[in-house]
Amino acid sequence: MLKEAFLFLSGNRLAKTVAMHAPGARSMALRFVAGESLDDAISAARALNKSGMTVSLDYLGESVHSKAEARDAADVYIGLMNRIAKEKLNANVSMKLTQMGQDIDDAFLRENAGRVLDCGKQHDMFVRLDMESSDYTDRTLDFFRNIWAEGYRNVGIVLQSYLFRSETDVSEANALLARVRLCKGAYKEPPEVAFPEKSDVDVNYVKLMQMLLTNGNYPGIATHDEAMIDAAKAFVKEHDIPNSAFEFQMLYGVRRDLQQQLVREGYNLRVYVPFGGAWYAYLMRRLAERPANVFFVANAIVRESPVGRLFGRKTQRK
């Protein structure tokens, strides 16, 4: 029921109008998305930098089916990187290959995404290739391997611990010394390709995380799960791995209390900041893909509230 409701809301013009213009609804949505414009994204990145956090900016959009849309998206990324460089922000970018034309044809994808990668090389700026559903995993990694073979080194990938294949993919990325963002994965996947149980996903996450921390190249440990974060902290302490060798990554607006705590403790923390006119549909689709995220978001808000912090302190004293 929740999935169908969110999918309905994602395409409902009235609901979008309410969300974008009602002060309460808009402020709630924009807690998790920086805004619609490039200026909004730059402003969010600037504020996060001042708080001691680095940033990865993501222009919202995916699965375009026209070359014009894909070129427009690449142009936004190029303008974004030019602004990052001009303002000397500590930020990079993340992009989806479906937004660059992956569903159009391979030659066009190479040309269009290549414009973004070349701009990144010009500014010595890193570009992360986001990972989508398992339908795109092989194609995304094939694209990455091809451009890596061409000599691009300002590019990295995302791997998901809920996929059975990811241990092999992590080993291959480590052999290349390619930078990996490790996440659990948020798409609904068939049991033939992914662990159906959260406990198995968590076990695999820890295994892959340890592989990356031991043999990887500055991995991004992307999670809001304190158990996973504590496992990473324990592992690097036990193996004398310096904090400079990796970074934690978290989503904009989610567990800001924990983000600040990690920075105070001396860990590198990168915040993934989405922006763009597609923010409303993006947010609804993310909730539709995994309705349990509604309760996760609500829990995050409560935990950051004064009441949540007070309860947490009382719990710690027991």
Strand element count:
8
Instruction: Give start-end ranges of low-pLDDT stretches.
Output: 313-318
| Major beta sheet summary | 8 strands, parallel, barrel
N/C terminus separation: 39 Å
Structural class: alpha/beta
What integer is the average pLDDT?
87
- Widest beta sheet: strand line-up: 1-2-3-4-5-6-7-8
Report the principal-axis shape.
globular
Describe the protein in words.
The protein is of the alpha/beta class and 318 residues long. The protein has 15 helices and 8 strands. Strands 1-2-3-4-5-6-7-8 form an 8-stranded parallel beta barrel, surrounded by 7 helices. Helix 1 packs antiparallel against helix 13, helix 2 crosses helix 3 and helix 5 packs parallel to helix 7. The longest helix is centred in the N-terminal third of the chain and has 20 residues. It is globular and about 50 Å long. The C terminus is likely disordered.
